[in-house]
């Protein structure tokens, strides 16, 4: 290492005399060891540049062998000294060396920074690349003399760790199962801090295995993905998008991955670089390489290779050079240092465990077969019982299959082991633990906000936050986050679906339809998107469009049942209860055949809720019992308890409420939404409206959110009517009328007009009352005649207005049940 002549450097209040090997601050000598000062001199002389550890040790200890730990002790001493002055520090570049940060000048030069120190050299390529990236995120530094890496066909092993967030831990909706949005999981940063920034998209191509050992076939791709995804500034192009691009290009999924095809796929998905790797065996050693190519120009951006002395050292060696690759591609050295958990710590030190995990990920994410992935995840855990992210993936798979108990058990285990993961994985595990295990959505939202701020180009936390905030009733923030997710992952059809859903909740069906049609025009159609098109059409009273979506889903296994349930709710909302029952029976049967018992339970709860609010107590309790026979998860128990409260089975209400309170002590919605509703329904049935109103006070914060679908508002209105406070009841029922995008085809939608009519009448507002009655009867003009709540409404109307009957009431119908 070349050394300038002895000079005196100045930075801040410090003065560094290289001739005497002394450091002063404000003229006072700072007591430091001589070697610490010599280290500081080397770093200052190469300010803003990486100084490799080996080079630093050769310079400071030219005639002696020294352990790296000795260097670390002196670095620690220097950091404590520099901490007294803002703007000056020593950064550690993991597995490489150190860098001095802060402007310095020669003493007497007249101005700080007038004579900059050494220019960038070959040893500081990472620092130079970092500066280039910060100045122009769309440019990449190029290197020369590429290494030759063997080419192999691209296999199915190209999984994207933490792929589309909506593939993770799908959560069922409460009562009416139409929360199709992704669920998607600490100090809370300002909301604006999560806005996405310029991103650097990478296509992680194949890792060629030339060892003959199949354990490397999938594992190294997963390991590189783990390392790259620790970066806040890189984003990996998901496998689903690559497969979609191949389809649009008219190529089969298993098309051999040539360099030209990789570059084209990268360009089609707005990527910057293609990264691939290779491994070969040379005697007892393994030679490992990674390469990055500019996908627009074909220029080689970085070629790195290293050796490992044995199979057990391959993951560590691969992590070392992939960490270097991040710096070479322009990531700031500070974030490389901060987010660089070694691969063997972030995942597992066992190649066999990582291989099993990778196979499971391949089955669950790429092929959409969660059940098929479970044996592989379980094998990974057997091989390494401390494999945290494997537990999270296993919990994910069980959740996708509706087994919330096993899902929670495995996510809880991942949470207990989260000290052994990367920062990215820790945020994922903690957010999902709070959201899906404890149910503390306030804590979950805090972690998601931190995740979004830390990883500004990750759509997953924004997708999950959008879902949580809509559940809470924070619709403006939910819409903002859904928009951000689309801007980050515009190629992902699910982000469009989530945005459409956010518009529906805000009663903006035109915008929702526009978003959905845009996604379809870009070949990003999906069953979820179609469900939202149905919902938008429902709000627009466009029966033709609703029928088009039903026709599209007709006969499609795994899809049709959700549309049948949606149509059943729509028919029931118009009073056509028998047809609704028939469709629910078909939906439940389809879910049962698919083994989705939790989904079947949700459909039964929907029917039970309708029957209860319409006054069919016996049918309501029967449907609720059927739901509990299918599943006893949180949502099914909550829904059943409300039904039992409305229909008068108060012993069942008390038993379930006690169980829920014991099982979910930290669950935000159980404690502050569902239990208050359950207790209030029982109080109303017991003719104690005061107790009902008091019980619902704690639900105020979340009453307008989609998690409760305004049921607490409706129940509070019923309690106010029963208490004789018609004015307050009017306010509550008007809230329901004012939020059609949240209510959609819930039975309380039309019933709110009937109840507000009763409130108007009790207040003496007879003209308004009659109009409200007429609106209800118009909505129920095709209703089954023998629904108790309808018969009561007709009697009230004719009794109040001198024997007149509403012109639209279905008194001539003779439906039998």
UniProtKB/TrEMBL annotation:
**What's in the keyword line of the UniProt record?**
DNA-binding, Repeat, TPR repeat
Q: Which domain of life is it from?
A: Bacteria
Q: Select a single GO molecular function from the record's annotations and give it.
A: DNA binding
Native source species: Telmatobacter sp. DSM 110680
Please state what the protein is called: Winged helix-turn-helix domain-containing protein
Q: In which ranges do the TPR repeats occur?
A: 388-421
| DNA-binding feature ranges | 6-102
Q: Which PANTHER family match?
A: LIPOPOLYSACCHARIDE ASSEMBLY PROTEIN B (PTHR45586:SF1), TPR REPEAT-CONTAINING PROTEIN PA4667 (PTHR45586)
Q: Which SMART domains match?
A: TPR (SM00028), Trans_reg_C (SM00862)
Q: Which Pfam families match?
A: TPR_10, TPR_17, Trans_reg_C
Q: Which GO terms describe its biological process?
A: phosphorelay signal transduction system; regulation of DNA-templated transcription
């Amino acid at each position: 290492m070349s050394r300038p002549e002895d000079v005196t450097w100045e930075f801040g209040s410090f003065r560094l005399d290289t001739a005497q090997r002394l450091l002063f601050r404000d003229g006072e000598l700072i007591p430091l060891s001589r070697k610490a000062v010599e280290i500081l001199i080397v770093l200052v002389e190469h300010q803003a540049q990486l100084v490799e550890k080996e080079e630093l040790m050769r310079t400071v200890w030219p005639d002696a062998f020294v352990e790296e730990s000795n260097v670390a002790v002196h670095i620690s001493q220097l950091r404590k000294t520099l901490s007294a002055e803002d703007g000056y520090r020593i950064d550690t570049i993991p597995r490489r060396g150190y860098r001095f940060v802060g402007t310095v000048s020669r003493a007497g030069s007249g101005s700080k920074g007038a004579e900059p120190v050494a220019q960038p050299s070959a040893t500081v390529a990472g620092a130079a690349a970092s500066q280039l990236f910060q100045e122009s995120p769309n440019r990449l530094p190029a290197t020369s003399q590429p290494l030759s890496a063997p080419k192999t066909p691209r296999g199915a092993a190209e999984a994207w760790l933490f792929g589309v967030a909506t593939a993770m831990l799908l959560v069922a909706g409460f009562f009416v199962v139409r929360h199709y949005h992704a669920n998607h999981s600490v100090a809370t940063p300002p909301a604006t801090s999560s806005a996405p920034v310029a991103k650097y998209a990478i296509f992680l191509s194949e890792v060629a295995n030339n060892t003959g050992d199949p354990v490397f076939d999938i594992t190294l791709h997963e390991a590189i993905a783990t390392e790259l995804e620790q970066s806040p500034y890189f984003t990996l192009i998901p496998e689903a998008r690559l497969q979609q691009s191949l389809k649009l290009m008219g190529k089969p999924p298993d098309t051999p991955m040539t360099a030209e095809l990789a570059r084209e796929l990268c360009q089609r998905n707005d990527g910057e670089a293609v990264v691939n790797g290779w491994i070969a065996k040379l005697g007892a050693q393994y030679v490992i390489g990674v390469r990055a190519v500019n996908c627009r120009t074909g220029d080689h951006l970085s070629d790195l290779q290293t050796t490992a002395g044995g199979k057990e050292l391959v993951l560590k060696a691969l992590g070392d050079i992939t960490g270097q690759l991040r710096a070479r591609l322009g990531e700031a050295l500070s974030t490389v240092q901060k987010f660089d958990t070694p691969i063997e710590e972030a995942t597992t030190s066992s190649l066999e465990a990582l291989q099993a995990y990778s196979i499971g990920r391949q089955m669950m994410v790429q092929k959409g077969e969660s059940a098929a992935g479970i044996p592989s995840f379980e094998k990974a855990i057997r091989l390494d019982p401390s494999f945290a992210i494997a537990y999270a993936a296993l919990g994910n798979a069980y959740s996708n299959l509706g087994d919330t108990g096993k899902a929670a058990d495995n996510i809880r285990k991942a949470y207990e082991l989260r000290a052994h993961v990367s920062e990215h994985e820790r945020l994922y595990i903690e957010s999902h633990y709070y959201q899906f295990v404890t149910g503390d959505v306030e804590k979950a939202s805090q972690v998601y906000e931190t995740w979004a701020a830390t990883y500004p180009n990750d759509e997953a936390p924004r997708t999950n936050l959008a879902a949580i905030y809509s559940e809470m009733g924070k619709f403006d923030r939910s819409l903002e986050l859904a928009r951000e997710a689309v801007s980050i992952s515009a190629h992902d059809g699910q982000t469009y679906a989530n945005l459409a859903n956010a518009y529906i909740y805000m009663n903006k069906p035109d915008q929702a339809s526009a978003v959905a049609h845009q996604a379809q025009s870009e070949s990003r159609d999906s069953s979820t998107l179609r469900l939202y098109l149905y919902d938008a059409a429902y709000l627009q009273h466009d029966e033709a469009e609703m029928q088009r979506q039903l026709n599209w889903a007709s006969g499609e296994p795994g899809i049709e049942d959700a549309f049948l349930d949606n149509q059943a709710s729509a028919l029931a909302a118009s009073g056509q209860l028998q047809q609704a029952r028939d469709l629910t029976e078909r939906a439940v049967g389809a879910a049962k055949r698919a083994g989705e018992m939790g989904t079947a339970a949700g459909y039964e709860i929907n029917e039970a809720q309708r029957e209860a609010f319409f006054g069919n107590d016996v049918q309501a309790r029967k449907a609720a019992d059927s739901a509990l026979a299918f599943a006893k998860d949180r949502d099914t128990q909550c829904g059943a308890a409300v039904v039992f409260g409305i229909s008068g089975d108060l012993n069942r209400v008390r038993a379930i409420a006690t169980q829920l309170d014991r099982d979910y002590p930290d669950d935000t919605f159980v404690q502050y939404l569902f239990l208050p509703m359950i207790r209030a329904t029982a109080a109303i049935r017991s003719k104690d409206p005061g107790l009902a109103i008091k019980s619902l006070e704690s639900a105020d914060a979340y009453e307008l959110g989609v998690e409760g679908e305004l049921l607490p508002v409706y129940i509070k209105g019923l309690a106010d009517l029963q208490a004789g406070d018609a004015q307050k009841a009017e306010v509550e029922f008007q809230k329901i009328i004012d939020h059609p995008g949240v209510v959609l085809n819930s039975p309380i939608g039309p019933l709110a007009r009937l109840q507000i009519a009763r409130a108007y009448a009790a207040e003496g507002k007879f003209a308004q009352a009659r109009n409200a009655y007429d609106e209800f009867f118009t909505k129920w003009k095709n209703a089954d005649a023998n629904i108790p709540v309808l018969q009561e409404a007709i009697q009230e109307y004719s009794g109040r207005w001198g024997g007149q009957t509403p012109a639209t009431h279905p008194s001539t119908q003779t439906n039998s049940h």
